[in-house]
Structures are given as C-alpha cells and as structure tokens.
Design a protein that fits this description.
Blueprint: H1 17-37, H2 69-76, E1 86-90, E2 93-99, E3 117-123, E4 126-138, E5 141-150, E6 156-159, E7 163-165, E8 172-174, E9 179-183, H3 189-198, H4 220-229, E10 233-234, H5 237-244, H6 273-279, H7 287-292, E11 322-323, E12 334-335, E13 353-354, E14 370-374
Antiparallel strand pairs: 1-2, 2-4, 3-4, 4-5, 6-9, 7-8, 9-14, 10-14, 11-12, 12-13
Amino acid sequence: MRPRPHAPVKMKRPETPEKLFTQVIEASQAEILQLWEEGDRFFPKEGTRCEEEIQHEKTIGRSYYQCNPHFWQCYWQNGVEVNPSIKVDLFGQTFHVVAQPVFEPIKAFSNDPRFYELFKKTGAGINLQYGYMVELSVKEIPGVSQPMLLADTCRDTYLPERIYGYGKDGFIWDNFGRNIFIDKFYVTNRQVNEWRILKGEASKVEADRKKWPLPALLSLKEQINYCAFYGKRLLEAKLFDAASMSPSDFKDTKPERIIRPDTPWQRDHRRSFLGMARINPDYQLTPLDCQLAQVKGCQEKYFSTDSATWMGFHYSLGFYPESLRNVIEPNKNLKMSSHLLSPDSAWHELGKLADWNGQQNEKQPVAFRCYEEVVK
C-alpha cells in the first residue's frame, strides 16, 4: 500500500510583530546577500547618481562593485533606483525590507548618514571579526529593526589542498590539512582608506575618488601592518606560484612530477603572446593579450577577470609589480612582470622574482595582496 502524500505545511502567520519581523528578515537573507555580493549586476550602464560614493569609469571592471560598501551606500540612498527595497512575499502579503541610514557620517567620504558602519572586533577567546554593520527594517512592520554584519566574501579565493612547486627549480611543498584563502586582486586604496579610518587616521585617507579602485602603494612595512590588522599576512612567493602555475592534472593532488609552466595559460612560454613578442620585435598586441597580461602598450584597466588563473587568481603576469614575502629566498620578494615592461621582456615568466627594498617610488610602483589561513 503506497503512503499517502503529505499535504504541504502551511506556515502560520506569527502573532507578534517581532516574530513576524524575524521571519521576514530570514526570508530576505538570500536577496540581501545577492545585492551585496553581486552589486555589479545591479549597476546600470549609464552610471549611478551618487558621485561621492561611486564614480563609474570604463577602465574599472564590474568586480569592483561586489562586496563594496560604497555601492551599498549608493544603492540605498536612491543612487541606483528610486525607493529601493527587497520584496518578500510571505503569509499572503508583500513586505519591503530596507537598510536604514542610522550610522554616523564618515567625514572623509561625505556628510551623509551611512547605511553601514565599519566593524572590527577582537578580544580574548574571540575570533577576529570584521566587516560592515548594517541595520535592516521592514516598511510594513514599524518600530522594529535588526543589525546584520556583511563580510567581504568576494575578496579571496581558496587554494585547493595538493602538492605544489615553487620557482623554476626543485622546491616542492603541500598544504594538506590547511585552509588557505588568497586575495584575488591587489589591495585597493578604498580598502586602505577603511584601514586608516578604523585606526583613527581618517586624515590620511585617499581623497581622490577616482583612485579608490586603484592598487594601494604602501611601503613594505605598511603592507605587512595592513594585512596583520585583519589577521592576515602579506602574500608569500610560494603561494603566488601555487595560485598561478596550473597543475597538469587537477584530480591528482599528489603528482610524482610537478609541472612549472612559464605562464598561467601556456606551459611553453614560446606559445604565448609574450614568447611571440620576443621572437618578433614587430609583434602587435591584441585586446586579448592585454586582458591576459597588461604589459607596456596596453591600456590600464582594473578588476578585469579575464586574467584569471586556474583557481581564480588575477594578475599573475603583467599589471603591477607585486610585493611578496619570501621565506625560501628572502632576497627575491618582487614580481617584476608588469605594465612597465615591454611584452618582449624576459621578466614576463612565472617563477622569476627580483629584489625590492620596501620603499615605493614613482618609476616602479609596487602593489600587494594578503592571504589568510583559517584553522579547521
């Protein structure tokens, strides 16, 4: 005898406004996170109406607007659409969830009340927490609100557990049993602005809004301090190579032979456009070349995702020189390949590093990124 199908369970409308509010907020969580994490999809092609928060530039890729508090601020202050809200249909009624401008203005940005507050919490026995505190309410349920902490979940990418190689020679290592997350892009001026504000150094923020998406150019000491402030470390050279050198077999995590390709896209450098440029001095760069590795002769663009490696890591070759912590060869702490060098430069290969004294200069600006190891 077949069992009778169960009738769908009909949710009973809560009796109190507080319980109703809780259920509406819970039902809206997915869309709230979608707005936060996929802000670029909500970004209109014609730009936004809040120049103090977002300055739309064609040279800035849409990934910049993901998990971006300035986009969040712009969205809720009617900069993307009029009277924004997240609609939730529940108990036969449509509810409208909205963020509230209840936080103090950040004078370095504007005099407007903020729809978010920079947040960092530490303490004995407490895991480091940081992100953006927001306050949510429901138009149809007045007098009730709830805080929510948004994290920058768009920032980093996971390094799979396997055996990796470092550099051009025989050094190998593995990260089995370790959860390592690496920044996808360079640390930006916007992120450093937040760091300075949290440290009480608002007077030192970068005021030029057009520079907010650009790589932050800090001294080596400042780079290390920035990463440490968030419980992270300056990216290591061996992690850079691991994220850039594509494995020959993605399923075999313990290969007998470690492949060390010259570029993230071609194992043989001669088959890449960089190799062709060495052979042919008259080689003409194509738009695709510049998307893979921004070298001299390319237009500068930021937050382009076309340069992604096998694990979603960007800017392995070209773009900016990059600072790296190197515990294996301490005097090799700089990825030289960059937009400052012509495409035929011998520096445009993975595993080739130079020495940096830790001080910025106009001729060779050095970007950086962080990584985090999360205890299982």
